[in-house]
Amino acid sequence: MHLVLAAALNPGGIIAWIVIGLVAGWLAGVVMPGKGYGLIGDLVLGLVGALLGGFIVGLLAPDATFGFWGSLLVALIGSCILVAILHAVTGRRAL
Length: 95
Fold this sequence. Notes:
Blueprint: H1 14-31, H2 38-60, H3 67-90
Helix pairs in contact: 1-2, 1-3, 2-3
C-alpha cells in the first residue's frame, strides 16, 4: 500500500518519521501559545501532525521530496495546524 504522504515525509523510513514527528511535537509545544498538552501529549500531537502535514503537502505537491529538514518543517507545520484546531475545538486559551 502506497500512501500519498510518503513523498512528503521520506527522510529514511518509519523510524525517521517517528523521530521527526516527536521533534515536531515538542517544537509545536514550544512555538504555539498556551501551556501545551504536556510532554507525552505534545509528542503524540507531533506524530499525528506529521501525518497531517505530510498528507496536506502530498495533496499540494504529490511528487515533491524534502529530505530531513524539509520533512521536519512539514511535520512542524502539520503539528501547529493540529494544535490550533484542538485549541479551537476545546476552547483552550493562550496564556
